[in-house]
Amino acid sequence: MERLNIVTIDGPAGAGKSTVSRDLARRLGFTYLDTGAMYRAVAWAARRNGIDIEDKKALSELCNDLRLGFSGDRILVNGQDISSFIRTPEMDRLSSAVSKVDVVRKYLTEMQRDLGREGHLVAEGRDMGTVVFPQAAHKFFLTASAEERAKRRKMQIEYRGEEITYEEILTQIEARDLADSTRSIAPLQAAPDCTVINSSDLTVEDVIAKIVSEI
User: Are strands 121-125 and 4-10 parallel, antiparallel or unpaired?
Assistant: First the structure.
């Protein structure tokens, strides 16, 4: 079976996937695909339209009418840049909820595979190496302790001028880990043929150096 010229980086919330994937894509001259932002975008659109996450029919109709796009590091919904609206604890919870809905996963998985047909892609998410691109040439699973991920997420939120306690974030991360790893559709797990990297005590440059050396 032909292996696709794609690098997948999966892992739990707060492991540093976005920063590592974005920088790696830039270094390789590949396209960066932030699939987490795609689920957040659907969650944002559902919330804006007053759609109940349990309403599959309404979510299916939403997806059919939704135009998702990327412009650099920005994500667009029907032409509107929503990048600054989707990095919140509420969108964390909602995106985890919509990711369990089969019609949403089917819609976004097909879109992600279309984007990956040309190869030369660094795809970041939770099921890139296991479900979306099982034939990817290089697969990685980036993780870190829940405590370290909570510290990182707290710094990100405070950098945006928002306030939240470490305990609140740790609780949210542990709940997200449980939800992502136990969902019936495409649960978060390391692909059997991936390289696992624990970034708890590593810098971004350390992680990228490990990935580049593997590639």
Answer: parallel
Looking at the domain 4-205, which fold is it?
A: Rossmann fold (3.40.50)
Tell me if residue 88 falls in helix, strand or coil. Answer: coil
pLDDT band for 2, please (50, 70, 90 cuts): low
- Residue 165, by phi and psi: left (phi above 0), alpha (psi -120 to 50) or beta? beta
As a whole number, mean pLDDT of residues 18-42 equals 93
Q: Is 127 helix (H, G, I), strand (E, B) or coil?
A: coil
Among candidates 59, 78, 8, 58, which has minimal Cα distance to 36?
Answer: 8
Among 172, 163, 157, 161, which Cα is nearest to 94's?
172
Q: Regarding predicted confidence, which is higher, 81 or 4?
A: 81
Q: List phi, psi (to 5°) of 155.
A: -65, -40
Q: In angstroms, rounded to a whole number, what is the distance separating the alpha carbons of residues 175 and 171?
A: 6
Tens digit of pLDDT for each residue in 165-212?
999 999 989 998 898 888 888 888 999 999 999 999 999 999 999 999
Q: How confident is the model at residue 1 (pLDDT cuts 50, 70, 90)?
A: very low
Strand partners, 75: 70
Q: What is the rounded distance in angstroms from the CA atom of residue 78 to the CA atom of residue 67?
A: 5
Q: Name the amino acid, one letter, at 33.
A: L
What residue ranges do the domains of the chain occupy?
4-205
